[in-house]
Model the fold of this input.
Amino acid sequence: MPDESNTAVLEAPAETESVETEPGALAPVESKTTDTPGVPEKYDLKLDGEYEAITDKGAFLEETGRIARELGLKQEQAQKLAQHRADTLGGYIKSVKSAQDARVKEWRASLEGDKDFGGDKWDETKGKLGAFVKQHGDQELIDALAKTGYSDWPPLVRFVQKAVSERDALKARLDKITREHNFVPSNQPVVETKPKTDADVFGVSEIKKQALSGAAATT
Done:
């Protein structure tokens, strides 16, 4: 007995089914090829000059071509779009960099005029801060601070300055205690000394005086 289900499927006439969507739902978008006259299959896009903001020029031009094709642009129009996008992005990055440079300049002026560590002490302060960051940080941190300008950010500089001041104060107290109690610093070799005799403690004359007193008392 033939399989009626298979026969029905095979013999069913080809029909275009309508897709019903619920109220408010988006209808499916049909994909279609671009056959607009003058729109090439592939654009030949170029950029005049170098743009610091565009790290991958190939990817940038490929994206521009995709946008141009969706808009149905011709070759000349797509080229203008690519140049316009590059100029706009470059101008934006330039304005951001200019604003950051001005901000860093204000930060540096604020630090140089600080009453605690600025003015005549600023060069010395910079040397101490740089040495502290180099000692406790790494090259990645140093490069990041220099690149972003945050090496001159007042809150960060004051934080590091406070740490340096507290370290120097602690070192000064430890040095004072070492001198007062004749401690040997941990980084100095220990020198062995002979046990002190009575002569070392009291002096030779004192020992003679005590000996004569003892002799006189026995006579």
Remarks:
- Confidence is low (pLDDT under 50) at residues 4-33.
- Residues 113-185 form one domain.
- The CA atoms of residues 45 and 76 lie 9 Å apart.
